[in-house]
Amino acid sequence: MDLFNLRLYDFRNFSEIDVQFKKGINIFYGDNAQGKTNILEAIYFLVFLKSVRAFREQELIRHDRPLAFIKGMFNSRAGPVNRQVTVYRDRKKDVREGESLKTKWSDIATNLGAVYFSPDDLNLIKGEPSGRRKFIDNLIYQIRPGFYKYLRGYQRVLSQRNSLLKTLKNNGHIINTLDSWDEQLSEYGAQLINERLKVLYTISDLTLDYFKNFSREGTDLKIKYISSVDCSDPESLKKNFKKVLREHRDKDILRSYTSVGPHRDDLQFLIDGKNVKFYASQGQQRTIVLCLKFSQRDILHTVKSENPILLLDDVMSELDIHRRRLILEREDHQVFITTTDLKFIPDEIMNRSSLYSVKSGVLR
Ligand SMILES: Nc1ncnc2c1ncn2[C@@H]1O[C@H](COP(=O)(O)OP(=O)(O)OP(=O)(O)O)[C@@H](O)[C@H]1O
Ligand SMILES: [Mg+2]
């Protein structure tokens, strides 16, 4: 899949642009605060209909303007997709494909895909477990939309169980009602953990391959699922989850909170058995996150038979020359990358890339 034309009107710091892109690598270069990330954000917004960084969609509209307009023409295996989105200050956004207004999610083309890397993604390693759970759950959701049902089901039962725990502190005699919530929670929870383990299994192998290639060190990278539930046998997840819920029951009642389950689980990245959160260098951490993103792209490709666009924001600056060369060495799919300086882009990559200078909201 590729994006061959992008038009923006009053989007962030762009008043109007209309630009053609080629397959392969497209590089946006320019000083800080010129609009490079804004373009990646526009592409992401077109694909997913949500912003990677805006808290409110209205932030996308150029200051003092009434609306922002974003239009992209994509080639996909299923045919061309011509999508236009208008974001208004005072009402919901419009999404059009071709000439028709799309009012339901289910009518929107699902074959567009993108994978985004931003420097903030280092939080995937350094940050809180919730970011890692979100990464894995989003990935599962993208390949198996039905997963949403389990996730929502789990969250609903969890919040009901937590409310009950609060009441139980003062009304100990209704403790038996907890059994039925534990039953439901362990049912949904087991499905959730099972899906996570399955996708981790695939992504671990892919990530290790990329990591070995990018780092060329003889190092081993492992991704471990950390859970309070014994996950050694997928068949016993429900039983094991119920068991830990039972074991933590008294503590949970005291705290009015469910302290075990997939909502507390985590991923751990290990290089040669050492936790990268504490031991890996900045460059190694960045390499791991990139490897995860490339693997995510491969998984989406396999499932959708369509190659998602890769959006790499400021990816080169902290990598050594050797890694910079390798990162895009074999890329023949569509990639958009930003850089403050073309000196970060190795010659062999420059030679097969399309270059766009970005200066004060003007693209050339
Ligand atoms: N809604 C908006 N209207 C007008 N300008 C905006 C709006 N939102 C953001 N900007 C401006 O867009 C400019 C460019 O932002 P962007 O993040 O794309 O820069 P960049 O080229 O990626 O810079 P860096 O190299 O520092 O990452 C910023 O100066 C910001 O103030
Ligand atoms: Mg930027």
Provide a quick synopsis of the model.
The protein has two domains: 2-113 and 332-363, P-loop containing nucleotide triphosphate hydrolases (Rossmann fold, 3-Layer(aba) Sandwich), CATH 3.40.50; 125-278, Glutathione S-transferase Yfyf (Class Pi), Chain A, domain 2 (Up-down Bundle), CATH 1.20.1050. 41% of the residues lie in helices and 23% in strands.
Structural features, described:
Helix 3 (129-143) crosses helix 5 and helix 4 (147-168) packs across helix 5 (177-215). The chain is of the alpha/beta class and 364 residues long. The mean pLDDT is 92. The longest helix has 39 residues, at 177-215. It has helices at 36-48, 123-126, 129-143, 147-168, 177-215, 237-247, 249-255, 276-279, 282-304, 321-327, 347-350; strands at residues 2-11, 14-20, 25-29, 67-76, 79-88, 94-97, 100-101, 114-117, 221-226, 266-271, 274-275, 309-312, 335-339, 353-359, 362-363. The protein folds into 2 domains: 2-113 and 332-363, 3-Layer(aba) Sandwich (Rossmann fold), CATH 3.40.50.300; 125-278, RecF/RecN/SMC, N-terminal domain (Glutathione S-transferase Yfyf (Class Pi), Chain A, domain 2, Up-down Bundle), CATH 1.20.1050.90. It is built from 11 helices and 15 strands. It has a 6-stranded antiparallel sheet, with helices on one face. The protein binds adenosine-5'-triphosphate and magnesium ion. Magnesium ion binds next to helix 1. Residues 36-37, 313-314, 338 line the site of magnesium ion.
